[in-house]
């Protein structure tokens, strides 16, 4: 048996994914990629993300947003506001290892799927609750939206020009780091359970996730006492000396990361840099150095400068777009993107896995499901007999979509 034939490292674990949007589904998908049996528990009309296509990429029957965050899952469509539907979930909890939700604080209690209620059914359950700002506190009921959290975290004021509006990251940064944090929390709690047999509640919130991501920057502020001060020139980081950031060349853009000023001066023909000290003038003459560097880089194409910087051992690199990224030779060598056939969306190419395992590698066993595609299958595994299942369908407590 080859490693590709072996079950994933989390094979045998059952995850109930009751989350919506990005952070929760992305965390659950990572668990599925490692072999866990992830059952996406969604409303009979489908999870919110099915109806909100990022970039307008609607797909055939499944939009790209949902497809990208829900592979390696089965879909159970159930109405948790219906007593019969709620009982279905309780049956599933009895045999589950992980329960993941990102309801607003208080919703799980109202639905009767809070940690205390589910732990009474299954004491060994690892219960993960994801929120925007925390389970309680003054902001608990605020909407946990990515851009709002980016702004609140302080990160947006660590780059760019003083006096200009801050710029957000070009990705759903807070959602992504929260997903990774929840994924880590699940693995750690499962390890604890393996050692002790004890389940537990794991809480993750977006505000803490993006704040702790800035471990070094915030420590410079809180321990070093240095203010977060943007300059007149668009530096990429308030706590790194000049020059540091993206620069325009005669035919495109490149990034330059705190080069030795004497070497930089020799390459650019900036004699004024030759007498400068990196850790003194890189701060006291920050805007001047940035502006003079920017003016020089405009005179030649990117390739000229990148070759010259590489020869001098200066850290510099190209500014890619997505089209450049997907055809990069290192990306291809790493197998960063994976291609598979989806039953309704056809042949798709998407980002793959951020980790490698020599014995139990992650893989895609199924694409994102249709709403309730596996409802009947999951209920049968939970021990419901055919008549019970048909009664649930008839009552509208559960639903299915067939391919």
Automatic annotation (TrEMBL):
<dbReference type="Pfam" id="PF02515">
    <property type="entry name" value="CoA_transf_3"/>
</dbReference>
<dbReference type="InterPro" id="IPR003673">
    <property type="entry name" value="CoA-Trfase_fam_III"/>
</dbReference>
<dbReference type="InterPro" id="IPR050483">
    <property type="entry name" value="CoA-transferase_III_domain"/>
</dbReference>
<dbReference type="GO" id="GO:0016740">
    <property type="term" value="F:transferase activity"/>
</dbReference>
<protein>
    <submittedName>
        <fullName>CoA transferase</fullName>
        <ecNumber>2.8.3.-</ecNumber>
    </submittedName>
</protein>
<dbReference type="InterPro" id="IPR023606">
    <property type="entry name" value="CoA-Trfase_III_dom_1_sf"/>
</dbReference>
<dbReference type="InterPro" id="IPR044855">
    <property type="entry name" value="CoA-Trfase_III_dom3_sf"/>
</dbReference>
<keyword id="KW-0808">Transferase</keyword>
